[in-house]
Amino acid sequence: MNIYSFSGPSGTGKSSFALELAHQLEVDAIIDDGLFIMNGCRKAGTSAKFEKSAFKAVKRAIFSDDAHVEEVRVALQEVQPEKLMIIGTSDRMTIRIAERLGVGEIEHFYHIDEYRTSKQMKMAKFIRKTEGKHIMPVPFVEVQQNFFKRLVMKGFEIFSTKKEKIGETTIVQPDFHEDLLVYKTKDFTQCIRQVCEDSPYIMDVTKLQFTLYPLPIAKLVLVYSSNETERMDEKLYMLQQQINQAFDEQFEIEFDTIDLQVEHLASQKKPLKIKKQAAVVEH
């Protein structure tokens, strides 16, 4: 059996991408969060997401329980997959799982940051912190509703580059998830407005459009200082960087694009009030 490791920090989108990566590598079996999954179906094990506390979830994911180990070992021996991918938060974790299951040494190591940008991983973490959503790389029918007190819903279908369906996911909200962070639309727009207010080059913002998902996008129409027209492009680029940095510091997410349009020039700064604002926060 060829053993593959796929790792990355918690909440960065590993389970969402696992089926696609497994398809690319022609891997038919996956170990994820305590589950043994074969061709999209649960064969053995219990998901760590079924646990009632974060501590127990970690213990489940690393196969600390001997009975859990034996159940998955037996299933692996019966099915005997040609290739097996072990998913974890680090190489150290996947190596430990491989040792516990007795499947041999890991021969290939892959990491989420090889396939996802920093922006995408931060947004995945943001969704985890604000919505508590966890992805399981199995179809909805494979997940037992009674394990959860809260959300269980169909995720999305995974397709290959040739438009072939290669799997499905399920979205769950485990009982052990910490309290969610709550942000309102105005929290995001006020962050943008404050950076503009602090800029000596921006006299006014006449329009602001903001969309949060799938990655943040902002479009601003500005009144620019008539006294600062030299190297305007550089100063506007600096403003984009400052807005993105402020977002990263406050919400730990980054913009996909920030579009700045100068409407006209003025010599005096006005109290910053958005005259027209369209802010959308939706999937």
**Helix share, percent:** 25-40%
Strand order, largest beta sheet: 4-3-2-5-1-6
Number of strands: 13
Average pLDDT number: 86
Q: How far is the first residue's CA from the last residue's CA?
A: 40 Å
Report the portion of residues in β strands.
25-35%
Gross morphology is: elongated
So how many helices? 7
Structural class: alpha/beta
Main sheet overview:
6 strands, mixed
Q: Rg, please?
A: 23 Å
Along the chain, the helix and strand elements come as EHEEEHHEHEHEEEHEEHEE
Task: Furnish the topology, listing elements before pairings.
Blueprint: E1 2-7, H1 14-24, E2 29-32, E3 35-38, E4 41-45, H2 54-61, H3 66-79, E5 83-88, H4 91-101, E6 108-111, H5 118-131, E7 134-136, E8 152-159, E9 165-172, H6 185-198, E10 202-211, E11 217-225, H7 232-251, E12 257-266, E13 276-280
Helix pairs in contact: 6-7
